[in-house]
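dumping the sequnces here before i forget
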Amino acid sequence: MPSALNALNLNFSTIWPEIILTAVAIIILVLDFFVKKENKSILGYLSVLGLLAVIPVAAMTVDPAPSFGGMVRADGFSAFFNVIFLISAVFTVLISMDYMEKMNIQRGEYYYLTLFATLGMMVMASANDFVNLYVGLETMAISFYVLVAIRVDNRKSVEGALKYFVLGALSSGILLYGIAFAYGFSGTTSLTGIASIGSRLSSQSPFLLLALALIIVGFGFKIAAFPFHSWSPDAYEGAPVPVAGFLSVGSKAAAFAVFVRVFVAAFPAFHGHWVDLLWILSAATMVYGSVVAISQKNIVRMLAYSSIAHAGVMLMGLLVYNDIGSAGILYYLLVYTFMNLGAFAVITMFIRKDGRGSDLSDYRGLAAARPLWAFFLALFLLSLAGIPPTGGFTAKFFILAAAINARYYWLAAIGVLSTVIALFFYAKVIFYMYMNERADAEDLPVMGATYSVVLILTAIGTVITGVYPAPFMDIALKVIKPFFM
Amino acid sequence: MLTLTHFLILSFLLFSIGVAGVLLRRNIIIILMSLELIFNSANIALAAFSYFLKGLNGMVFVVFNITVAAAEVAIGLAILVAVYRNRKTVNVDELGDMKG
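..and the predicted 3d for all of it:
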């Protein structure tokens, strides 16, 4: 009997980050009962402390041997993603506290649901089994449904939440059906098990082709790729602004973590089957996101479409199917965390309770009234557009270079073209801020301490990854290497 | 004699009805019911595969799925109640504040 237990390898050290984060979330859940309505931001500060405490643990939990009977694989890949999730959660909670007070949403569940969403992402990143992956995905998704709907008395919020819920649950169902057929094909739910069986069997099994198509559709919904994107602009617009930022960064990073792990670790033998489908998805997503973003009037919706276009670029890194392309995704997501949450932080700060600050036209003349805010927003938007001294440029560069190396010339050309189109709508906001006169200069909010911390850190992250990308890219390459051996 | 194919046809029918229901019906409650059909079609496929492959993984997965689907539908109904309080409607066609 002990030998059977040893074979399971119940190594709790591989899930320490998840255990600590769960404990923090439950402590905050219990404390919520004792904290008065006016003081809910205490819970926010405690969440930030808890998340900061988990970051070093998550970064050091690297143990490539599968544990818990092959369910968990806490390798460098999952550690890299866990750090991204935790950083984005820290930024999100920091910008949330003032926002919640401003919007008069004094709810403690906001903070522990953010932590549970982060927990779901971390379970996804280290999942080596479809059971684990699916439960992590649902932990994240269910927390996000509630977070999007947290302004229950707001018409837009509940509408966005309903659209997000219906399409999110539909995509989970489609993914689950695909997983069922992957299990039927291989007789195992373990990703490494599927890979070892797949390399022996004929790759023409109809079960497997069905499973691949359904799993791509399911993940396509989660990363908001083109034909499956329709929930994301509405959910982002309806959600509290920090939640929209967290959705676009954290949930996308988690979906890409499982996308890369499933397709590189479990289905490498069938690369030829899924690469063409992803080619079309990637090209359509990049072009659609960039083109539709141009006509948007609401800045959060504009960033939602921009986030769709970014997902298309990252898909390019996946279908290239080599270590540089996949490392490019990891690096891109790290940079995206800084630049996108930075942009969302400025918007969170600027938006008022009556909704002013959400339209692009509200940003007219911001540079004259608040030069520092305009500078930060311009920096993040230039980075999102991919302008050289920032991280957005190096991230796009690595992925496009990988695509060109792998002879995907047309796809790379479409990627460059969509970047050029995207520059138009990012530049429009910058033009509004610097070249126009302000209509109402009065009652602009002041920049709180938490915003300053977030803006300075995200700006440093955006610039450092732009001027000195080598160490980050080296880490990304190092953690992705074992997948391609 | 029931074979694996019978179960797979049943699950595929349920899955198709569920997807069609989510995409075509306009009443949110019917959409939630269709979502349940999709989850259960996957559960039937998993349980059938598990039985015919003589493995336990699929059965265990079904238990997890039932738990997750229960949590999911609870949230769905809560959001539905919030929508109804705001809009006094459960028809998705009347939820069009955000476009574009």
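The CA atoms of residues 191 and 262 of chain A lie 7 Å apart.
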